[in-house]
Specification:
homodimer, 383 residues, alpha/beta, Lyase, Ornithine Decarboxylase, Chain A, domain 1, TIM Barrel, 2 domains, nine-stranded mixed sheet, eight-stranded parallel sheet, 10 helices
């Protein structure tokens, strides 16, 4: 639903371009553009010349403007977590989209077919024959062939088929559906992204990749041609691309990073610092009623805590915790700087995806000056 | 920032009115209108004839349409958690607004004064002299007197002054600011709302109320006239209104309730069932890859877990947990009904405020049929 007040509030945003970030209304979701661009370049550089490509996951940013920058950096497409998110990307001008969750039910499939009319390469995952029949019927009614990938479970025990036999059976069922074109497999191993320690993570990822490869071999042996094998994310970006049969990885968080990701460790380091923490939330001290505590304007509605607490940047000797949904509480043990009402406190986000989903706007800044404002158009589009 | 795609997607919403809720795109935030209206009436009935009034907290719904229904039910105003939320309410036609967090910094104060031009009774809390001076200067520049209430800490150790002496000192400082009119005190005891057991909750609330009353007496003794003493919420709605000096309560969750609130217990019952669970999230089973698990389309981005898990309605013999941000995982131990791909699973939300903030739209339904669609206009407006 469009918001009239959002319209009213849009105009003033432009006035902040060229201003110091301290002028932006807080809590504000900031992108450090230098770090962000370096993250884009780091992943693109790592992938250059490899057989596999990369299709960044748009659920991390929900913003067509950022999706287009990823395409410019060398990505061959974008992932969308849901149909609603895909609608925003396609309407925003990005047509090479893989929807990474099953699209179920007549009304959603009707929406999907309207989207395919604009974006014929749109691909959707399937793991159920009845769903496949409905997708095919809708595609035939629209005089189209819909691209589908079989969704595999490689250990997360979420959506996706468990065994090679299940996948072969579904491939055979798909072959009877004239409205569908089986292009390949999705084998996202979400449970491996945050395995602590590179060596541990590598072993875990290779197990999942081998499970996917076994399924691919079985499906190919049954006579099917596989051109897509979509796997992995940010945590395994430097493990997955060269594995047998992989055609693309789906990294999302690499552009932003978060406190949780840093803790998993890198190849040669205790912190996973292949990518920089470009995403922060700027808050303002709105109350400092006693010597021991300062209160910010950022609580659960500005900073997610589902994967741990956000971490204050440039502020030590304190404890931070959310003071409910609207406030942050900073216990001032031995702070390295004085905090007065009106002062800013910046936090590295605890979990990028769920924090982004709380905000309407990215404020892109370089060396502390606002350079652009991007609308998080797919915010709330879980449908 | 306005979303072009939100515009595009608005039109189809109307087609769902008169349809069964099962037709609505999921995950969908549903309001059971029978329960919701009963909740409105229950609180209004309890407050009728009492000296204190009620000013429901709009942070729970972020929706001017619902705020107006609360006014019709007898509320004398609405609370807003932040300036951004107040802007949405005022632009939506609600002018009796108390902003319950401090508004700090020149740019926000300028916005505040633009809002006061539309809503002269707008009241804001203060707990800091420097902030008060800035508010006063802006009000004088706008040729207005801004209504302010002193924010008190009555045990939550968040924003608000700790002692009667601090409050008297601030009242005296406010008196020198010609742009301000001190109308009273805010003493919200958020830490008491979820105290388990009515007797325990009553004792805790009376302690906080007495702490606020002592401050009011000290401020009045210092020569100030107090016409506003704003306290309490849903958990103490039947404890606070008759306490000495209280002029209003700030209940938010009573219209919706949630799983967490139910657990606190009522006057004569183990569950707090004074109000019904009118707010649910409808999800769809999008995958059922093996006998033991069904996967829904509702994860952390559709159902908040900051105060505990959502609870499935009409579904027993299962375990539910979020499968990341986009999925729900239902472990089928001994389910009371069969779940197929395409079937719906409805959840009582774990925490209403943070779940509402994840969605763009309320779907109001009566006896399973969609009756209206309300935009959550202040979603994400933590600024």
């Amino acid at each position: 639903m469009p918001s009239e007040t959002a319209e009213d509030d849009a105009k003033p945003f432009r006035e902040f371009i060229g201003q110091p970030v301290s002028e932006v209304p807080t809590p504000a979701l900031l992108i450090d553009l230098d770090l962000f661009e370096r993250n884009l370049a780091t992943l693109a550089g790592f992938m250059r010349g490899r057989k596999a490509g990369f299709r960044p996951h748009g659920k991390a940013h929900k913003c067509p403007a950022i999706g287009k920058m990823q395409l410019v950096s060398g990505a061959h497409g974008i992932c969308a977590a849901k149909l609603g998110e895909a609608e925003v990307f396609v309407h925003g001008g990005i047509t090479e989209v893989l929807i990474t969750a099953e699209v179920v039910g007549k009304r959603k499939i009707d929406r999907l077919m309207r989207l395919v009319a604009v974006a014929p390469n749109l691909t959707v995952v399937v793991d159920n024959e009845r769903n496949a029949v409905e997708l095919s019927e809708a595609a035939l009614a629209a005089k189209r062939r819909l691209k589908v990938a079989i969704d595999l479970n490689v250990g997360q025990n979420r959506a996706g088929l468990d065994t090679p036999q299940d996948a072969v059976a579904l491939a055979q069922a798909l072959a009877k559906q004239k409205g569908l074109e089986l292009v390949g497999l999705q084998a996202y191993a979400g449970m491996n992204m945050h395995v602590v320690g590179f060596a541990n993570r590598r072993v875990a990822s290779l197990l999942a990749l081998e499970r996917a490869a076994a399924t691919r071999r079985a499906v190919e042996k049954a006579g099917f041609h596989i051109t897509l094998q979509s796997v992995g994310g940010t945590g395994t970006y430097n493990i997955d691309p060269d594995f047998e049969g992989v055609t693309e990885i789906q990294p999302g968080s690499y552009i932003f990073m978060d406190a949780h990701y840093r803790s998993i460790g890198g190849v040669d380091s205790e912190a996973f610092n292949d990518f920089g923490n470009s995403l922060t939330v700027l808050t303002t001290v709105i109350s400092h009623p006693s010597a021991g505590r300062a209160i910010t304007d950022g609580g659960n509605k500005a900073l997610s805590t589902d994967e741990g607490l956000p971490q204050p940047k440039d502020l030590t000797g304190i404890n931070y915790h959310p003071g409910g949904d609207e406030y942050g509480i900073i216990d001032l043990k031995n702070p390295n700087r004085r905090l007065d009402v009106g002062d800013k406190v910046e936090f590295i986000v605890g979990h990028c995806d769920t924090t982004v989903n709380l905000h309407n706007t990215f404020w892109g800044a370089r060396k502390g000056v606002v350079e652009n404002v991007w609308s998080i158009d797919a915010r709330g589009r879980t449908d």
